[in-house]
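Subject: sequence -> structure tokens, single chain

Hey, anyone have a minute? Need the predicted structure for the following. Not urgent.
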Amino acid sequence: MPAGPDGMGALTRDGAGARLLLDVQATLGEGPLWSERDSRLYFVDIRAATLHALSLDSGALDSWTLPTQIGWAIERAAGGLVVGLQDSIALLQLDPWRLQRLVDPHPHDPAMRLNDAKAGPGGQIFAGSMNDSDTDRSDGCLYRLDADGVLHTVDRGYRICNGPAISLDQRTLYHSDTARRVIYAYPLAADGTLGPRRVWKRFSKPEGFPDGMTVDAEGALWVAHWGAGCISRFADDGRLLRRVALPVSQPTSLTFAGPRLDRLIVTSARDGLSAEQLAREPLAGGLFELDNEGVRGMPAWQYGG
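Reply:
Had a minute. Here:
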């Protein structure tokens, strides 16, 4: 394809290399998580306050409605899930249903909500927040929830926190500020302490906005390009290794799934699209599977609390 203004290929949405897995039409699909324990793919629809669980074998879909918007779900080592709600981080047991709120990171500002998170190798959770009513505000924070239940604010000044991912050697935490088109990298210590952040990559306008991320078993970072309709695979030094087009403009996040972690699943969103845009993108909000060319992922860590 012809070169774009940044020297990379022009971004298209022809859908090459991607297939529709589930036409769920999520308003704001996010947070895909493969659970080996449950043999299901969990993902959320933030705006619909819904947690979904999909069996990749049978195609069966189970869904649960939460009391507020839900940004993510992470497995808990002791059983059940930890979820990021608009007003709290909470423990969730699905059967029988039990929701127990642990901590509210922003008790005095109802405009704030939790947006994306990942567990770390030490059993912590790294989670970001954002101002849901005004994404031009720099109210967002990066938090670390330790296994003892103590919440730490480890960085501030974000507009839209997204996509924590941890490098293969467990020494770097990647985290994006989507609104600023930047991915940061933090030195990561064994106890979860973060060093000073640095800019790892800035996205050009044709590349859209960096959203959710995941690291594969070869140490490369896969990133969803909100607004540009593609997924990219980058080397750990930021070099572009591969770019996969999607038939939708707003991919949000991705993860490797299945017993062999060899299925690359992508969530997407309809949020903010006009009627005319939705007519051009009837699959917006769907769940997609990419041709990952034999690359596999890494198992997700669990919350240790």
